Amino acid sequence: MIELKNVSKEYEGGVKALDSVSLKFSEGEVIVIKGMSGSGKSSMLSLIAGLSKPTEGEVVVDTKHISKLADHFATSFRRENIGMIFQKYNLIADLSVKENILLPLVPLNLKREELDERLSRELERFSLMNKKDTQVKKLSGGEQQRCAIARANINNPKIILADEPTANLDEKLSLSFIDSLLAMKSENRTIIIATHDPLFFDLDFVDCVVEMRHGKIV
Ligand SMILES: Nc1ncnc2c1ncn2[C@@H]1O[C@H](COP(=O)(O)OP(=O)(O)O)[C@@H](O)[C@H]1O
Ligand SMILES: [Mg+2]
Questions:
Q1: Backbone angles phi, psi at 185, to 5 degrees
Q2: Closest listed residue to residue 84, CA positions, set 156, 161, 27, 154
Q3: In this structure, which residues have their CB less than 5 angstroms from ion ligand 2?
Q4: Strand order in the sheet with 16-25
C-alpha cells in the first residue's frame, strides 16, 4: 500500500530530515513511527501525504508514484485517499461540527444523499449526533477530538495519517483515541501514527513499530 524507496528529504539550510529511508507497509496495517522530536516523523508523513516532495528517492502510495505527481494531482489524490489527524485538530472553530466533518468532501461533488449518509455514519459512530449543529469552539476537548477523527474518516480514506495525535490529551482521551483507531482498522484502513507517546509502543493491534533517529530507521 505504501512504499518509500531510498527516500531523502533535505530542507533549505541543509537539514536532512530523512536520510535514505526504505519502507513497505501493507494494506490494513497499523504502523507506529516513533522517535524523538526532530527525528523526521512529520517529514515522513508529509511525503506520504504528497504534501512535500523528496529530494531523492520515490514514494509510492496505492500504486501511485505520489512523489512524482504534479501538485494538483497530488492534492486530488490526497482528498480521495488520505485522512489526516493533527495534534491541534485543525478544526474551524466558528463552523459547526457538521460543517467541519463535511469539509473534505466539498471538492468531491458527491450527491446530497451520499453526503447525508456518510455524515450520519460518522456522527453516530463518534457520538456527535446531538452536537451536529454546535460550533466547534463550544465543544469539550473529547468532542473536538472525535470531530477531528470523523473529519479524517469521512472520505473513506484508504490511509489515515496521525501526527502526534495524543500530544495534548489526558489519559482518558488518549485511550478513547485508541478505540477510534480500532474502529478505523476494522474498516481496513492503513493507519500510520507518528508519536513519542509510549502508550502506542506495545498495543496488540499495532502491526509494526518503526523507530527513527536523525532521519534514519534504527
Ligand atoms: N519546513 C522545514 N524547513 C526546514 N527544516 C525543517 C522543516 N521541517 C522540519 N525541519 C527539520 O527537519 C528535521 C525533522 O523534523 P520533523 O520531520 O518535523 O521531525 P519530528 O516530526 O520527528 O519532530 C528537524 O531537524 C526539523 O527542524
Ligand atoms: Mg513532528
A1: -60, -40
A2: 161
A3: 41-42
A4: 16-25, 2-10, 56-61, 64-65
Average pLDDT over all residues of the chain: 95
Q: Helices 141-153 and 112-125: crossing angle, nearest 10°?
A: 140
> What domains lie within the chain, and their CATH numbers?
2-217 (3.40.50.300)
**Cβ–ligand 1 contact at 193 (below 6 Å):** no
Using a 6 Å cutoff on CB, does residue 11 contact ligand 1? yes
Q: Which residue has the cell 453526503?
A: 115
Q: What is the pLDDT of residues 5-60, one digit of tens each?
A: 999 999 999 999 999 999 999 999 999 999 999 999 999 999 999 999 999 999 99
Report d(CA 107, CA 128) in Å as an integer.
24
**Residue 77 grid cell:** 489524490
Q: How far apart are the CA of 51 and the centre of ligand 2, in A? A: 14
